[in-house]
Amino acid sequence: MKRTSSPLEDTLKVIGRKGTLIILDMLTNGPTRFTALEKILKVSPRTLSERLKELEEQGIVHRQAYAEVPPRVEYTLTAKGVALEPLLGNIGHWIEDFDKKSKKKNGIAPQRSTDDLRRLDAGR
Q1: How far is residue 4's CA from residue 21's CA, in Å, rounded to a whole number?
Q2: Residues 121, 92 share a domain
Q3: Which of 33, 58, 100, 120 would staple 110 via disulfide (CB 3.0–4.6 Å)?
Q4: Do 7 and 67 fall into the same domain?
Q5: Under DSSP, is residue 64 helix (H, G, I), strand (E, B) or coil?
Q6: pLDDT tens string 55-113
Q7: Whole-structure pTM value
Q8: At 1, which helix (H) or strand (E)?
Q9: Same-domain check for residues 21 and 3
Q10: Which letter, b or e, does each residue of 56-82 get, where b requires 16 or more Cβ atoms within 10 Å of its Cβ?
Q11: Residues 21, 43 contacting (CB under 8 angstroms)
């Protein structure tokens, strides 16, 4: 008997693909053009198009094409995409914490973030 996937599994398959979290992070700053995403990700246009199409199909990203010459296409987060922002922040914090613990375990001094410094200052 084949098990069907859940909406959570489907979403994780999409956002877990290479480059997708970076795309989402960039889009949290507002409308972003395809070329800007392409420069940051350094992936082929085909791969970027596939990722954006998957995010669009999941209702996470909105694609807006403008009838201009040359053509202009911008991507923004939908309400569903904006709802992912806290998750993206938590993933970022988890990565920072894991990185610090890993470096400490290996005898490497961790880099302090500005948030860490603010917390230290607040505690004094």
Answers
A1: 25
A2: yes
A3: 100
A4: yes
A5: strand
A6: 999 899 999 999 999 889 999 999 999 999 998 888 888 888 887 766 666 655 555 55
A7: 0.70
A8: none
A9: yes
A10: eebebbbeeeeeeeeeeebbebbeebe
A11: no
